[in-house]
Amino acid sequence: MQEVKKPKKPLIYYYVIVLLVLLLFNFLAMPWLMQRQVQQVDYGTFLEMAEKQELGQVEVQQQENQIVFTNKDNTQIYKTGMMPDPDLTQRLADSGATFSGEIIEQMSPLLSFLLTWVLPIAIFIGIGQYMSKKLMQRAGGANSMAFGMGKSNAKVYVKSSEGIKFSDVAGEDEAKENLAEIVDYLHNPGKYKEVGASMPKGILLVGPPGTGKTMLAKAVAGEANVPFFSMSGSEFVEMFVGMGAAKVRDLFKQAKEKAPCIVFIDEIDAIGKKREGQLGGNDEREQTLNQLLTEMDGFEENSGVILLAATNRPESLDPALTRPGRFDCRVPVELPDLKGREEILKVHARKIKVSPEVDFSKIARMASGASGAELANIINEAALRAVRGGRKAVTQADLEESIEVVIAGYQKKNAILTDQEKKIVAYHEIGHALVAALQSHSAPVQKITIVPRTSGALGYTMQVEEGEHYLMSKEEIENKVATLTGGRAAEEVVFGSVTTGASNDIEQATKLSRAMITRYGMSEEFDMVAMETVSNQYLGGDASLACSAQTQALIDKQVVALVKREHEKARKLLTDHRQKLDELAKYLYEKETITGEEFMSILNA
Ligand code: ADP
């Protein structure tokens, strides 16, 4: 869709222009105008005219070393350079010229008057008129809109045939289905009016960042072929109280003029947060929210204005905003599943050249948990890699490497590990892989590498599930915890000491174990009691404990016990398979990167 930019220029802009024009005029045009009338002649001509008594006024400009003079009837001005001429005064006296020393008017008096008086006054009157007109207009619209504040500044997209369509948004079939009805309504409102059905006024798209919420909103406008107003919630909030509310008014005024149309407010939580008690309130935000609520009540159903909003934090929205009659329709836009990821990859791969052997389903499996934006990024990264490698099309290897770049960062070119460090990292990674492979409910190992990455990882083991997984059993989670502890366990078994390399593993293992006990009801003592509630599920999922201090202490004990148990299990597995551990670690140490097949063939040899 094409964005239409309105020529909005602040008044200061006009001031500067006028000032520049005046300056230019004074510096360039005036001297030129004056110059034009003066005719440069040689000293001989001056002498000749003096002799023939044809001089009118004469002015000797000692400093400029020149003589300016006119003819008898003052119609032409002449200028000549001075010569050492002792008889000059006598000559002038004889010629009958007036030489008073007064400056000769080098311009016609009328022109001079026009330029120095009438023109500037006219310009200033013009500016005054223009400004008062502008201010009057604004005062009519909203009371506090001086100098461009209080205008909505919404980006307006007009209908265009090559806008984003539903087909550009891959996956998200449920969301598209929900929104298709809106499109149908915008195409054919009569059908709905006839039955008396009314569309929801506001639709809230909720989901994690980068899942295509903005894209879906644009696609609705593209499919319906109506104008699309886009604005971010944070753009409403200004330094001055009342300004945001004025912007809301302006936005709705514009939208009503253009109806049927779609108004999209991104990150609506910036203005729509719950209003809280008196203390520490944010007046500006609350006024803006109140105005939004009023406007939403103000426009009738079926007026043709559809409001779409997106947020990652639906739980923080004010209940007044989500009640029926306002944003009552909620469309979840979740992270894509395996099929969705494959489709998104394919949609984005249309824009680049891909060699035919590429297996998108494998890439989609490798990129589990990635959002649409990340997948788009992976494709672009792969294309860049292909160009860097001088290839004409993107290969499977490009795509696989770019997943790692997106997950773990670029390979560090000059990170030099000592031999001992490299050995430890090799054992650490093989420890993870071996523990995973020796347990029954673990995802197969896809790749192991000990090339340091810019994210700080010194190596990693990539496990890829065969298909999509929606449920995890208790055993699977336990095995996962064991796998996470496998790296540290290998260090202990082989070197008898531990390093800092396991910090990330420790964090993840703890998080998983804690969730098992507090949220998934997988412990004997607490049974199916929720000890934690997740406060923002789409942004990392911070959890807050909801239990007594004693219970907290008990939970902590259980978490420790669980991790310890799994750690012990991993240590035992590795001790029992010490020979394989050494063999694999040596192989990885030499090759630096090995595939899952290589790993399995050595393990099964
Ligand atoms: P959000 O608003 O949910 O944070 P966006 O709609 O801005 O996410 O998406 C960011 C980018 O990610 C899009 O420009 C697009 O390239 C890509 N993207 C996300 N989801 C999808 C999808 N379902 N299909 C195709 N591309 C997607």
3D architecture notes:
The protein is of the alpha/beta class and 605 residues long. It contains 22 helices and 16 strands. The strands form four sheets. The chain has a seven-stranded mixed beta sheet. Helix 1 runs antiparallel to helix 4 and helix 18 runs antiparallel to helix 19 (503-518). The longest helix has 33 residues, at 109-141. It is elongated and about 130 Å long. The model is unreliable at 140-147 (pLDDT under 50). The structure holds adenosine-5'-diphosphate (ADP). Adenosine-5'-diphosphate binds next to helix 7, helix 13 and helix 15. Adenosine-5'-diphosphate binds at residues 169-172, 209-215, 310, 344, 347, 372-373, 376.
Report on the biggest sheet: 7 strands, mixed
Please identify the structural class as seen in this structure: alpha/beta
Distinct ligands: adenosine-5'-diphosphate
Overall geometry comes to elongated
Strand content: 5-15%
Q: Give the helix tally.
A: 22
User: Residue share in helices?
Assistant: 40-55%
Average pLDDT rating: 83
Report the end-to-end length measured between terminal Cα atoms.
59 Å
How many strand units?
16
Radius of gyration over C-alpha positions, nearest whole angstrom: 40 Å
Would you identify the regions where 5 or more consecutive residues have pLDDT less than 50? 140-147
Lateral arrangement of strands in the main beta sheet:
1-6-8-9-10-7-11
